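Hi support team,

I've been running sequence recovery on a batch of backbones for a student project. Most finish fine, but this one hangs at about 90% for roughly twenty minutes before it completes. I'm not sure whether the input is malformed or the queue is just slow. I've pasted the structure tokens below so you can try to reproduce it. Let me know if you need the job ID as well.

Thanks,
M.K.
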């Protein structure tokens, strides 16, 4: 399955728009898909264990990309960076488990806002692991971003709980995944990265799914199927967005997910974001946007 094949009927209708505008629209659409997906996880997360939801989500996603995996097999598994692939998969499992558990137990907007902290962790991990250079302004932005996280989580106050910590752990793990992908994508083919992700994540999720298995109702089966489908279309739309436009121009559109999360959280769960969430999210988003712009400028100066 390719992005162009899925979205060709739609892309033809606004092909006259500037590339960055088309890319921004696709990223916004992806954000809507992902937000609805997380809302569905929250809807059934009280009755179906998160590991079981993740397992069936992975099955749907693996079935979708199976033609690519089969065509590349067994060459798609040939790699000189097995340890990095395994580390990436483990961080992905930890990130999804922690992040989705937080989604089930926190207000949707708050969990979404805390998830955006991954941009701050990417900046830190890129310096520590990839030896990238960060100036004092970049570090100042990271510090301000973490102040935003502290405002949202209110450590030592009534607002802090274990699920806020899980959301932050999920964001840090997602950042580790992104940094590892940045590293191995310089040497590995996309099909190889995709193969290890699809196969190993599914295998790892089997034991906890069997241990915590809950027999789903027909409604819950349909919701889990929808979660997998929305994940696939969200990723395809995101890929299409970054294919159409420059990363520095379209990446900020991902923050529309916070708007969608606030709206859906209010409509479906009666959630009203607290002022601490609004202020903290604003700081995290502002510093993340600065980091994206800084990386874009660094990339341009390296050309």
């Amino acid at each position: 399955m390719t992005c162009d094949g899925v979205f060709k009927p739609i892309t033809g209708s606004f092909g006259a728009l500037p590339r960055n505008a088309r890319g921004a629209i696709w990223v916004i659409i992806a954000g809507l898909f992902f937000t609805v997906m997380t809302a569905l996880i929250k809807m059934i997360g009280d009755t179906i264990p998160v590991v079981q939801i993740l397992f069936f989500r992975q099955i749907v996603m693996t079935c979708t990309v199976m033609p690519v995996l089969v065509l590349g097999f067994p060459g798609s598994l040939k790699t000189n960076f097995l340890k990095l692939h395994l580390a990436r998969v483990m961080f992905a499992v930890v990130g999804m488990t922690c992040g989705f558990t937080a989604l089930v137990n926190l207000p949707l907007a708050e969990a979404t806002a805390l998830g955006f902290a991954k941009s701050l962790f990417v900046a830190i991990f890129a310096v520590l692991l990839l030896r990238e250079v960060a100036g004092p302004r970049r570090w100042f932005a990271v510090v301000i971003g973490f102040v935003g996280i502290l405002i949202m989580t209110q450590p030592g106050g009534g607002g802090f709980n274990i699920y806020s910590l899980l959301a932050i752990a999920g964001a840090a793990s997602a950042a580790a995944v992104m940094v590892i992908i940045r590293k191995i994508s310089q040497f590995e083919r996309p099909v190889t990265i995709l193969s290890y992700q699809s196969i190993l994540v599914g295998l790892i999720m089997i034991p906890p799914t069997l241990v915590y298995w809950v027999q789903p109702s027909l409604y819950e089966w349909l919701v889990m199927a929808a979660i997998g489908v929305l994940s696939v279309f969200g990723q395809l739309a995101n890929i299409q967005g970054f294919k159409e436009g420059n990363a520095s121009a379209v990446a900020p559109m991902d923050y529309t997910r916070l708007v969608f999360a606030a709206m859906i959280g209010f409509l479906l769960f009666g959630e009203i974001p607290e002022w601490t969430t609004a202020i903290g999210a604003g700081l995290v988003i502002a510093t993340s946007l600065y980091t994206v712009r800084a990386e874009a400028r660094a990339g341009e100066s390296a050309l």
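--
Follow-up from support: It reproduced on our side and the slowdown came from queue contention, not your input. DSSP finds 13 helices and no strands in the chain. No action needed from you.
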